[in-house]
Amino acid sequence: MSKKDPYAALRIKEFNIFLVLRFALVFAWSMQFIVIEWQVYSITKDPLSLGIIGLMEIIPALSMALFAGHIVDQKEKRNLLAICIALFSLISLGLFLLTWPKIVEDWSTKTVLYSIYALVFFGGFLRSFFGPTIFSLIALIVPKKVYPNAATWSSSTWQMASVLGPATAGVLISFIGVHWSLCIVFGLVMFSLIVLFQIKKKPILNPKIGEPVMQSLKEGLRFVFKTKAILGALTLDMVAVLFGGAVALLPVFAQDILKVGSEGFGVLRAAPAVGAFLTMLITAYIPISKNAGMKLLVAIFGFGVCIIVFGLSSIFWISVVALFFSGVTDGVSMVIRQTILQIKTPDNMRGRVSSVNSMFVGSSNELGAFESGLTAKLMGTVTAVVFGGTMTLITVFTTGIISPTFRKLDLTKDLEAHENDD
């Protein structure tokens, strides 16, 4: 399985099983998020309510992230993921019940809204475990020499699910309504749980089982902050996602600016993921490890430009194209970042490093949603999106100037070293 083989990771049976369950999970999660966004904005007609969804998820996600990483490094990964999926199914079931016609009729709008926020809050705790567990499980399924290829296919699967999930949600909201759309989400979650048990239990590679929590957390943070490649990639992506979070305002654009309804909303929401997915398929054949630092800077700069174009557009097809290319640039960024994390992280610290990653990047999606909702409330939706894209450009310029080491980052030698590890 040479590193030049674009299908190296796909030749491993358990990795294919992993891709199926990841597709089902991400499809369900992204579909559920879209349905909830649509329902909440339909209830409130307030863009700030969309920001609150992000805030309700980021508070528990941030507060639990480091502790979740410690627990992941101490536990067997497959069974831990099974527990996470089972709890996710309870959230999906709860949201399905909250949209039951009888409950909608008997409960007040405020009670339904606050109940949705409560389930999203619980999902934030749960999400802090998902990322580290999945990141660690991949490394136990594939050998080190195919980590970059596995990262590409795993990210591509994530993006494909992110393409189909929102698009499907937009169509289903129109045809079968919010309630039965959430029923499909619940079914997908249960399917992923069944598929997971086709993967065997994996060994725990951490030699420090039972290590005190605070000592474990300090060690994880110390590793991230002293590894400049990881710290630079996470910081850059975090700020870009934080200020470029225009996706959270798509219900406003779909309903009030572009006036394209739920079907158009699904297309807009899927456009970035389509771009990212196609880019990731290309990177499976054309590795982008050479001059990775500069390529990451260029990609995030392009992302900022696309967000500004989208914010200024009042024409549907221009908005779709802008979002598509924002996904193309984001896809390059994601592959480079995931490759850096997989290559630079020791096996016994994957949970903690992935948790720090979720704090920097994953949680910034939710914080970015809150920032977008708040700035839209204060300065208007279009101005808020353009402001976010501009801040992304400023971040790229600043990083490129003050960090020449990151600008010159090249992963070629690291990949060659891993090729000989096995």
From TrEMBL:
Keywords recorded for this protein, A-Z: Cell membrane, Membrane, Transmembrane, Transmembrane helix, Transport
Chief localisation class: membrane
Top-rank taxon, per record: Bacteria
Transmembrane segments: 15-36, 48-68, 80-100, 112-141, 153-173, 179-199, 229-254, 266-286, 298-325, 378-402
Source organism of this protein record: Lacinutrix iliipiscaria
A Pfam short name: MFS_3
Keyword RNA-binding set for record: no
Subcellular location: Cell membrane
Protein name per Swiss-Prot or TrEMBL: MFS transporter
Keyword presence, Transport: yes
Signal peptide extent: none
Membrane topology: Multi-pass membrane protein
